[in-house]
Amino acid sequence: MGESTKKDYTPGWNDPPVLNYSPSNPPPKSRILNKRVAFPLGGSTAPQKPLESSNLPPTSNQCIENLHKEASEKFNKILKNISNEIAKEQISQMLLAWQSGKFSENVQNILTELSSSLLENNPVKVNELHLKLAMIPEDAIKQYLSALKCLMNH
């Protein structure tokens, strides 16, 4: 038991470090990580200036309304050329669901893009966007995919 910690060989890469547990050598103060910081007692805070509304971007609600208005105008132009009454009814219901806030922002952006691509008659982009909508795990849009497919095929 009284053996010295001096070894006759060079320690290997996986030999544990030799620790000195004597209380005469405490760890240096710079390595103590749980230093406490005093809570500020003074209640003085800088007064906040009111924000000017003229420099702010439009609120997300305004953006959503603009997206809905733009997409519904485009879908209505497309629906004028469609003879399938069921598809027309489903697209109208989809626009009402959108207006009531049932779609996420991602779905709203894709629907706006889809309406533009349908008007531009870009079938590659339309198929890509329809696939994106089908892959979104949101049940609110799933019921309208068949009506959108009908618009694509017209």
Structure at a glance:
By secondary structure, the protein is mostly helical. The chain has a domain at 59-153: Functional domain of the splicing factor Prp18 (RNA Binding Protein, Prp18, Chain A, Up-down Bundle). Helices cover 50% and strands 0% of the residues.
How would you sum up this structure, described in words?
The structure is a single chain. The protein is mainly α and 154 residues long. It has a domain at 59-153: RNA Binding Protein, Prp18, Chain A, CATH 1.20.940. It contains six helices and no strands. α1 (60-79) runs antiparallel to α2 (85-99), α1 runs parallel beside α3 and α3 (105-120) packs antiparallel against α4. The protein is elongated.
Layout of helices and strands:
Layout: H1 60-79, H2 85-99, H3 105-120, H4 123-135, H5 139-142, H6 145-153
Helix pairs in contact: 1-2, 1-3, 2-6, 3-4, 4-6
Output the CATH topology of the domain at 59-153: RNA Binding Protein, Prp18, Chain A
**Radius of gyration, whole Å:** 33 Å
Q: Give the CATH H-level superfamily of the domain at 59-153.
A: Functional domain of the splicing factor Prp18
Q: Which whole number gives the mean pLDDT? A: 79
Protein name: Steroid receptor RNA activator 1
Region (Disordered): 1-60
Organism: Hypothenemus hampei (Coffee berry borer)
Biased composition (Polar residues): 45-60
